[in-house]
Hints:
This protein has 286 residues and is an alpha/beta fold. The chain contains 11 helices and 10 strands. The strands form 2 sheets. Strands 6-7-8-3-9-10 form a 6-stranded mixed β-sheet, sandwiched between helices.
Amino acid sequence: MKNQNVKNQSTKSKNSVQKFMQRDQVFDFLTPKAAPKLDLSHNVILYLEDISVSFDGFKAINDLNLYIEAGELRCIIGPNGAGKSTMMDIITGKTRPDAGMAWFGQRIDLLELSEAEIAEVGIGRKFQKPTVFEMLSVEQNLELAMAQNKSVWTLLRTKITAEQADHIDEVLQSIGLIELRNDLAGKLSHGQKQWLEIGMLLMQKPQLLLVDEPVAGMTHQEMDRTAELLTSLAGKHSVVVVEHDMDFVRSIAKKVTVLHQGSVLSEGTMDHVQNDQRVIEVYLGE
């Protein structure tokens, strides 16, 4: 009798999985919510003004002023403890500053929004360590990324629209994984996982991408491909890259911002900041 119950449960589970895999329904949750209208009339997408924040008496960000233009690719460099991660935490709502203002375009006050709301208005963040769903295919990772409902079971039974399918193809082409669309994400190389996670952000159609140390642990070939990917995104998106690898920064950056002790130490072309005596003293060590 016990064996019969086990067999019945197994059959029931199998039927349930088959039902979920039918993918015969289209759900609205796969369509990202419409974000508030972004005002780029001054061609600046991100304003950080007079930002300060302290942790247990340590001033992680100290009167920081930073402006990112629409469509710009900006590299942020600086020694450990310069405030780079805290700055991105403030932009994405993870950390609230003690003072200052943070605006997305002319009208969206980031300090009034939650982390989820900031993502919805069009700011995406990629952390250093890739976080993909290794037991799902590359394409399924992208499908899940654009969904409001992150349930894998709901995803598997959902039929995507033609427009969504086109967007997936476009992103797969952009990140260079179109031929691996059906492969499990867990089988990808480290660099390919990084590209997939960037693709997952692109599925949400962000206006501003924050990318944290994208080439850490990559081969030289993967670094070159990552440079091509990030530069291809500039213009369509604004991209802020935090990176320690100076050769990589030099390969992609038109404008570099150097942070030190929570504020901007120097800003300009790579040649400009490399020849800035203050940067040489505190960071480059040359």
